[in-house]
Write a structure and sequence with these properties.
The complex is a heterooctamer, with 2 copies of chain A (243 residues), 2 copies of chain B (76 residues), 2 copies of chain C (191 residues) and 2 copies of chain D (351 residues). In chain A, 36% of the residues lie in helices and 19% in strands. Chain A is of the alpha/beta class and 243 residues long. Chain D has helices spanning 2-7, 23-34, 45-57, 68-73, 75-84, 110-114, 132-149, 207-225, 245-260, 278-287, 301-309, 328-340; strands at residues 12-15, 38-41, 62-66, 88-93, 125-127, 152-157, 164-165, 196-197, 229-232, 239-242, 265-270, 272-274, 290-295, 315-319. Chain D has 2 domains: 2-225, Rossmann fold (3-Layer(aba) Sandwich); 230-340, 3-Layer(aba) Sandwich (Rossmann fold), CATH 3.40.50. The chains are: A alpha/beta (243), B alpha+beta (76), C alpha/beta (191), D alpha/beta (351). The interface between D and F is large, with 70 and 71 residues. Strand 1 (2-4) of chain A pairs antiparallel with strand 4 of chain B. The complex binds thiamine diphosphate (2 copies), iron/sulfur cluster (6 copies) and magnesium ion (2 copies).
Chain lengths: 243, 76, 191, 351, 243, 351, 76, 191
């Protein structure tokens, strides 16, 4: 008989996330994967600066909180010193694709044997809804009040496509948590990204399209639609690299 | 036998479980939890198939489902 | 009244900042000196949020409020957190829908209003914060209800004028459906 | 602040979100285009300060804003801007540090702002407003100083300034200085010799030494020309209390209460932190036999107070970092205890 | 009758470059293009930190020297304030693709209407021959003394390929200055990149594979062979984007 | 320095090339793998300092090295490392500033190193070697201090140290402190509770205030336990000359000449800049009636000298930034002119 | 008429002009310029076709060529 | 001789650092105190490069050399730049292939060696720097030729042992083919 319940690595702790926030689902998936792979006791995670900064309150494993955008560099430092440990970063779109652009690209290109969970909610959640590098054209944010694109902001950056040109990268997949099927698929991808690290294959990144009802100023249900109808066409799901 | 249990104190009332229940067997309660939020309740106590979709979509792991189906824990 | 310090506390998203903002605007309308302040939790999300307002006839020194004369408490964790800070003999306004109506201290005066329930009945739990303003003003006469309505309209009409009527309704409901409970201050009984 | 900047002719803003100052870029993002200016949400604080470098070189009045960790990232750029003598305004709405810290009120970045957090010998003009009204006015002045002296100006706020609401009288912009034409900016070399803005100085061999001397002369000039502070009853004070920004404001309330109690206490609040208003302190210690410095950190401005007074009187410190703030009462208590105890060897040298 | 001689925008000034250095050729091409387009008097260039830091000693136009890697941000500031001016950056591979990665990618993605001349010599020239992001696998440098790749440095980053995934980019071409034909072609590409800016088309970048005999520890003639035989297969010449 | 680091057990180095210190990463790049350690040429100084953050959290003795502009870029990271109390060694081979400046000898980053160039109240332990031999030894000590106090240590070199060649006696590494086991590092939580390294401190409400108090207590302890300087004939000196690093060394030569001429001149060279060896100065001014501070900048350490001595004696300054360096003769001239003129009101308070 | 002129003081002796002259009509001098470097000289004074390749490859614009061919200045 | 300060100047790439390095090594072999120093131009490339060496029997104070006792000058720009700095009555060693043999000052002693030409004849202009060392040592006897040869071999054998013989040849050629020219010091004639 199947039981669906909170996996042990997730502490019995209420999260600080808003109702309907995709971070909660992404957390669960990462936690389940770690538990299923039996690697909790040799896993070291990084917390980003972003809504997930308090990640260590929810995961029962070693965690280091990094300066905004620098998780890949910090993870590099850890993994090189302890190659037998499983090191993952968990980063938002501002963290990974704006201030952390250089660290992301170079860690990826070096082929650091780490796993990156990239939660793309097309917005700066924690700071209250400013434009992110992945904000879509026309999307209204507190810093693009007439919609992105009108004042030379350029189009959204597509991280998987960008990184796919780098020789050092092993595995890239874009997933979502906006339907049950997507959630299952995201879990498969995350598991693969961790397995790659266990197998010593190098840099793996799973992008997760995720809801931010609060800063999108939508209800949770509308947020799910937003991901499915607005984000997926711009950020097509799928495998971008798998070597 | 399928059994669904809500940890209502964890629930934030987002309604995603309601939205995604394929049997449309959930609704948000009229009463509020400690946080002042509605939480899900079953409409028909026997209507649940134990598919686990509500669990899967819940951002707050506020639902536990015992399902008659195959393997446990949504494993892959 | 020379200086009155008010604290508004609740969960992020319950609109404590809006309460502070409306009270501040009403002060300006009444030409009182005022300093409002907001404190968020982690950069923005989650945790307890609170705002404070100091109104005074004189130049205001510290903008910080450590021991408010009165506190609007929107949920349980805020009550736990801030009850001890209220000035001896001060006042607690409770959103009893979420706080219950238990105070640990006996020296406080109390205003009870089931703000979330009232707001829910008005069709939008988000206006619970406005309900509490109505209750506060009704029982303290700190400011005139007219200035508060004016402050509220000013605020919302710049953002979303459609919201004004609902909020005015909430304000009035708060004034009507709240209750003032004067406990004989525990401290003074003993002294 | 944002509106004051636009009133003062700021037409370029680049910034990266960080609490507690997100309102600034948010405001700029819709107001700037209306004003015919440019708003850019940069990819990082490093990019933002370098966009400012470019915009200033192109002649615009320009501004960036951030909070502690973001300001640390700008240090290289700030050193470059100071070296190249480009005008700009940089706001730091300080939060609790070190590290990510928290977002409470703090004054932990005094040293960074005043003693140059970047490399090399340079100075920012640093102002510390205590009320929103002052923030408004000083922001306008900042643009004038920046252009007049060709020097970056930092507005060092206490974080809470960004969280406070106070009525502000919106005054129209009135330049306080006559700004010379910007004959150094890059506009393409039509009808003139080509211009270069650079900070690598190799020729002649002592070129950089001379450039440093030139900068130091400018700094001396600024020191002789700007120095702002607010004083209260220092003339006959036995004890002078001092603090900057919001701390100064709280201290003043305590000092006023002390005066009501009949204690001979005075008060100084420096408004410019660099140049530091030394003279006010020097004059104060002619009468006073003790000083008390209150800061929301672990003792930074106190060094400048001691240096300004040449350690003439015993100077005590009250303060903590990380979001602590003083309340009127504890300052008052401290004042009372200091007044009671006699000054060790008043006016002489004391350790 | 054709005359081949130094174009006026190039000052009659001996450069500080080493014998056989590709920067000299790249300088001439940029200078000729500016002169031919008649835009000298409205051009503002940026000097990088790298061997070309003294660029303003050679070009008779307005120039600003930027902090290492930040030219695209500085150029953004200038161009946004003076959209009628022609703004170009001139950057090395360390400057553009290591420390300046984020600035490069985001200026490109915003579609800033600027022209970037990217001199890829697969090495840090100015600081004495350390590995660059574009150093090739196996290439010996002072920081990869057994050849790049052995210690987790990853493969070279291919800038045109990387940027080609960004929506905001208008034009990308990789050229070289290691044969007369390449030189002519590089000039055509540079001219196009400037013309795009004049036409308001947005971000254009021309990569120039270039010789660094000194830090490669090769003779000028060998360096030319190195570009042609070693670099070109890894960095294929051609147009990567043209919209 | 690089070899000393490896001898001291440094097994992780991340850096980004910059003159004048390129020899360090170059040396590390081939030596580190031999020693079983990790060398990474980072994509920038920002990445490098954050790799150090990670490597230190993972328990390695680790080091990064750069020069002025690169150190400015590391300020955010340094503040984080100090806040998280992670040990590491950071070398700054200073060059001429501000901006890109030049690559000549300079001491322009004293303030940045000592007064905290990053945000918030924190301290680095800062050492300033004057010879290559001392650089070698102090590098080894630096790793011990870092681990012992869980604090970053900065080696503040004068740039020229990187360009100098002097014979160095290669001594084997001898720990100077007993390093407690690192019970905070992240190794995966096998057989123990999970650990967190963080610098955002929200709970309890005054958590960050307490963390700051904890840090300050640690700094007090360090101040009471470390303080290094070299002195020469201060006991009977009328004038004490002081300078750090190579400047100190040059000043000493001048002071020795002055002594030969029969002048009562003494000399102090602080080796730790933070903690500053206050006591040596306090003792020196018991006898001396004047001080001269020589620096290769526009007056930075002089503030600490004055604060240490409570401005007890007139203190003059000699120095310039941008690549200037003092020669023995001009220091000697200055000494002679200072000795000739009588101390204004010796020992009293003087402005 | 083709004419080639060397600004020998600018020349750094890299030899790229020699390498790329399609007529193999250049060689590096035995004598040295002020910088102590060899510079190119023509082998056969009439051998130059004015193709401009030497100019094009010279990093130091130390060569000027007058060519009988089409347009001037290598324009595109 | 208590302290001797030597300057070596030339274009970047002429190997001034190597000269300093070899002299320093020779000092260490002879157990003299020594401080060498290098100055590059812009971070690394171009411009004039120079190195200095101070040798002494005593503790060395300043590592900087402002007025060298002797200067090895490898090209014309260096001569222009450094001739005025040489200590009155000091010595200039000229690579006459590139400097010519004109000095502006009359008070200096001179060693002439056509180092670049000699190196060219030996098959590699790059060893011109080594030629000058040979000349210096031959005429000043500052150090023994044996220590210098030792220092040279130590340096190159760690880098590229194949280069040792050529460099030794260059050293000796310099010793042989150089000329010492003593001008009566201009200053002292007048006094
Ligand atoms: C150096 C620095 N710059 C800026 C910030 C402020 N900041 C905190 S979180 C954040 C962005 C968060 O957005 P994202 O990474 O998308 O995460 P999300 O909250 O959306 O999950 C920013 C800009 C900071 N803490 N440090
Ligand atoms: C912040 C900073 N970091 C490092 C340096 C040192 N630095 C100067 S140039 C350079 C790299 C030059 O390489 P590249 O950009 O490829 O240009 P090239 O010299 O090869 O043309 C470096 C690392 C610096 N000046 N500033
Ligand atoms: S702001 Fe957005 S991302 Fe952050 S917790 Fe709320 S819903 Fe989630
Ligand atoms: S398990 Fe499936 S059927 Fe049962 S409540 Fe959940 S979603 Fe509905
Ligand atoms: S999905 Fe979870 S949090 Fe949302 S309403 Fe259902 S049980 Fe509550
Ligand atoms: S080092 Fe290389 S890139 Fe720099 S000038 Fe010399 S050859 Fe050119
Ligand atoms: S112009 Fe052509 S033929 Fe004449 S020398 Fe130059 S390359 Fe040779
Ligand atoms: S290509 Fe130019 S620099 Fe090179 S040898 Fe020929 S003329 Fe001289
Ligand atoms: Mg986000
Ligand atoms: Mg390069």
């Amino acid at each position: 008989m199947a039981v669906f319940k909170r996996t042990p690595i997730l502490k019995d702790q209420l999260t600080h996330y808003c109702p309907g926030c995709g971070h909660g689902i992404a957390h669960r998936l990462v936690a389940e994967v770690i538990d299923e792979l039996g690697i909790r006791e040799r896993t070291i995670g990084t917390a980003p600066v972003g809504c997930a900064v308090l990640l260590y309150n929810y995961f029962n494993c070693d965690v280091i909180e990094c300066a905004h955008g620098r998780s890949p560099a910090v993870a590099t430092g850890i993994k090189r010193v302890q190659p037998d440990k499983i090191v993952f970063t968990y980063q938002g779109d501002g963290d990974l694709a704006a201030i952390g652009t250089a660290e992301t690209i170079h860690a990826a290109n070096r082929g650091e044997n780490i796993t990156v969970i990239f939660v793309n909610n097309a917005i700066y959640g924690m700071t209250g809804g400013q434009m992110a590098p992945t904000t879509m054209l026309g999307q209204v944010t507190t810093t693009t009040q007439h919609g992105r694109g009108g004042q030379g902001e350029g189009p959204p950056i597509k991280v998987c496509e960008l990184l796919s040109t780098l020789g050092g990268v092993c595995y890239l997949e874009r997933t979502a948590v906006s339907t049950p099927k997507d959630v299952m698929n995201a879990k498969r991808a995350i598991k693969k990204a961790f397995q790659n690290q266990i197998d010593g294959k190098g840099f793996s990144l799973v992008e997760v399209l995720s809801m931010c009802p609060t800063d999108w100023k939508l209800s949770p249900a509308q947020s799910v639609d937003f991901v499915n109808e607005k984000m997926k066409p711009v950020f097509p799901l799928g495998v971008y690299k798998d070597q | 036998m399928t059994k669904i249990r809500f940890e209502t104190h964890r629930c934030k009332g987002c309604g995603l479980c309601v939205l995604f229940c394929p049997r449309k067997n959930l609704r948000l309660s009229d009463s509020l939890n400690e946080q002042g939020l509605s939480y899900p309740e079953e409409i028909d106590p026997d209507g649940c198939t134990g598919c686990g979709l509500c669990f899967r979509m819940c951002p707050d792991t506020a639902i536990e489902v015992q399902s008659p189906k195959k393997d446990n824990q949504d494993k892959q | 009244m020379k200086e009155t310090k008010i604290l508004i506390a609740g969960a992020g998203g319950q609109g404590v900042v809006v309460v502070g903002n409306i009270l501040s605007r009403a002060c300006v309308i009444e030409r009182k000196n005022v300093v409002g302040m907001v404190a968020y939790g982690a950069e923005m999300r989650g945790g307890t949020a609170y705002a404070t307002v100091i109104l005074s006839e004189e130049e205001i020194g510290s903008p910080f409020v450590e021991h408010p004369d009165m506190a609007i408490i929107l949920n349980r964790p805020s009550l736990d957190k801030f009850e001890p800070d209220i000035l001896p003999g001060g006042m607690a306004l409770l959103n009893t829908s979420l706080t219950g109506s238990m105070l640990k201290r006996g020296d406080l005066q109390r205003i009870d209003v089931a703000a979330t329930q009232i707001a829910h009945d008005l069709g939008n739990v988000k206006v619970a914060n406005i309900v509490t303003i109505g209750a506060l003003i009704e029982h303290t006469k700190l400011l005139s209800m007219a200035s508060v309505e004016q402050g509220l309209s000013d605020l919302f009409s710049s953002k979303n004028p459609k919201l004004v009527p609902l909020n005015i309704k909430a304000l009035r409901a708060g004034a009507e459906q709240s209750r003032y409970i004067s406990l004989r201050p525990a401290v003074s009984t003993r002294s | 602040m944002a509106e004051a900047a636009i009133q003062a002719g700021c037409r370029f803003f680049a910034g990266y979100p960080i609490t507690p100052q997100n309102e600034v870029p948010e405001y700029m993002s819709w107001r700037m285009p209306q004003a015919g200016g440019v708003f850019i949400q940069a990819e990082s604080e490093v990019a933002a300060i370098n966009m400012i470098f470019g915009a200033s070189a192109a002649g615009a009045r320009c501004m960036t804003s951030s909070s502690s960790p973001g300001i640390s990232l700008k240090q290289e750029g700030i050193s470059y801007i100071a070296a190249a003598e480009l005008p700009c305004v940089i706001a730091n709405m300080q939060r609790g540090g070190p590290g990510l810290g928290n977002i409470r009120a703090s004054q932990g970045d005094y040293f960074q702002a005043v003693k140059s957090g970047g490399h090399g010998d340079y100075h920012l003009i640093v102002v510390a407003p205590a009320t929103l009204q002052e923030l408004y006015t000083l922001t306008m002045n900042a643009f004038d100083w920046a252009d007049y002296y060709r020097n970056p100006v930092m507005i060092l706020g206490d974080g809470i300034l960004g969280q406070m609401a106070e009525p502000v009288e919106i005054l129209p912009y009135q330049p306080i200085l006559e700004i010379p034409e910007k004959d150094y900016i890059l506009t393409g070399c039509r009808g003139r010799l080509s211009r270069v803005i650079k900070t690598l100085i190799l020729d002649p061999a002592d070129g950089l030494v001379r450039h440093n001397e030139h900068l130091q002369e400018k700094y001396k000039r600024i020191e002789s020309e700007i120095s702002l502070c607010e004083e209260y009853q220092t003339a006959d004070a036995e004890l002078v209390v001092t603090g900057f920004g919001v701390t100064g404001r709280i201290a003043k309330a305590a000092v006023r209460k002390a005066r009501k109690k009949g204690l001979a206490v005075g008060w100084i609040r420096p408004i410019t932190l660099w140049p530091f208003p030394k003279q006010a302190y020097q004059e104060a210690v002619r009468a006073a036999s003790k000083m008390l410095v209150v800061e929301m950190n672990h003792g930074q401005m106190i060094e400048d107070v001691k240096l300004a007074t040449e350690c003439a009187v015993p100077t005590e410190f009250m303060g903590k970092g990380g979001g602590w703030y003083p309340d009127e009462k504890s300052i008052l208590d401290k004042i009372e205890s200091m007044i009671k105890q006699p000054a060790a060897a008043a006016k002489g040298r004391v350790s």
